[in-house]
Amino acid sequence: MNSLKLPKVSIIIPARNEEKFIKRCVESFLNCDYPGELIEVIVVDGMSEDRTREIVTEISERDDRVLLVDNERKITPVAMNLGIKASKGDYIFFSGAHSEMPSDYVSKCIKHAIETGADNVGGVMKTEPRVKSAVGIAISKVLSSPLGVGGAKFRTGVSKPTEVDTVPFGCYKREVFDRIGYFNEKLVRNQDIEFNLRLKRAGGKIILFPDIELTYYSRSTFKELWKNNFGNGFWVIAGSKYADIPFSIRHLVPLIFVLTLLIGIVFCVFLSIVCKLHIIILGVYFLLTLFESFTKGESLSVILLIILAFPILHISYGIGSLCAIFFSARAVKS
Q1: How far apart are CA 121 and CA 113, in angstroms?
Q2: Other C-beta atoms within 10 Å of 103: how many?
Q3: What pTM was computed for the model?
Q4: Which residue, 85, 86, 151, 154, has most beta carbons within 10 Å?
């Protein structure tokens, strides 16, 4: 690639206690095929208590393209904004600390961004387990399934460039932040979803490209899956307090599912027709999870865990949203 015609890019990596993944993540950018003199990597650390800071410092001492920035508030949107303000690139990339990019990731993003004029471009996320246990594999399969994640096209894939409401991490034109502002620091979760929706409402264009790929290492225990998705579901609703439209309609589907289950259980006691309808809904859901699980081509033990992972994902997310509604209602009353 001719570096004289290419823009400088900044890679921003929010991190906290990521000693197992941070080196591999940082070096995947430093060793990519984009001209090295046009890359800077900014790790914004939430005051890690493990070796994350030490590892990043070691890398920065031998490579001045790497910068370590402190995030004393330990919140992801704060880290993202600190990174933007410290960056010098014409295009701003974000990456999770436990993600890994192929060597052509940056060059493909820049190529498509320049050719299309899009405000934000991204690629399809290949989900791999952090720990290659049977449970870890099952969770990674569910997080790549249309039944598991619904309309999240960046997880399930596209066959051609597609305009979407969000992409994983993203490659943004720097001018986007001058035009619509920074990430909402009051949103502990889902700040990227809210930002991209704000960008879309301002006339911005977000495009997902099938030839851009990245690897994301998912959680590998059911406890971690529940905790993470409970938080995501909670902040889908709680975020409404701090932003006009912090989510897409598809993010409400798990809440509707949980409410349907709860209402069905309550009214089954009084109305037999509701009980029958409730059984039909559960039966259809079970058959869908059964069919989707057996299409993954895994061993029987993993398939059984996939069947279990689907309701854990959906119910934890929905209960998180329901709890947010409950706490919001209590706050209004008080």
Answers
A1: 6
A2: 12
A3: 0.85
A4: 154
Is residue 274 in a domain? yes
Given 104, 121, 139, the domain boundary residue is 104
Q: Map residue 125 onto helix, strand or coil.
A: strand
The type of residue at 298 is E
Q: Quick one: tokens of 285? A: 């859901």
pLDDT digits (tens, 9 = 90+) for 279-324: 888 999 999 999 999 998 899 999 999 999 999 999 999 999 999 9
- Distance, in Å, from the CA atom of 194 to the CA atom of 248, rounded to the nearest integer, reads 9
Residue 91 lies in a domain: yes
CATH number at residue 2: 3.90.550.10
Range of the domain at 65: 1-104
Burial track 234-271 (b if 16+ CB lie within 10 A, e otherwise):
bbbbbbbeebeebbbeebbebbebbebbeebeeebeee
Residue type, 253: V
Identify the H or E element spanning 75.
none
Q: What span, in angstroms and rounded, lies between the C-alpha atoms of 278 and 265?
A: 8
Angle between helices 222-238 and 300-333 (to 10 degrees): 30
Amino acid at 213: E
- Per the listing, tokens 């409402």 go with 201
**Count of the separate structural domains present in the chain:** 2
Residue 301, domain member (yes or no): yes
Domain boundary pick from 74, 104, 134: 104
| Burial track 205-221 (b if 16+ CB lie within 10 A, e otherwise) | ebbbbeebbbebbbbbe
Question: β-strands 39-45, 9-15: how paired?
Answer: parallel
| Token pair of 172 as six digits | 């943004």
Task: Calculate ∠ Cα 44-49-54, nearest 5°.
Answer: 65
Is there a domain that residue 174 lies in?
no
Report d(CA 301, CA 248) in Å as an integer: 35
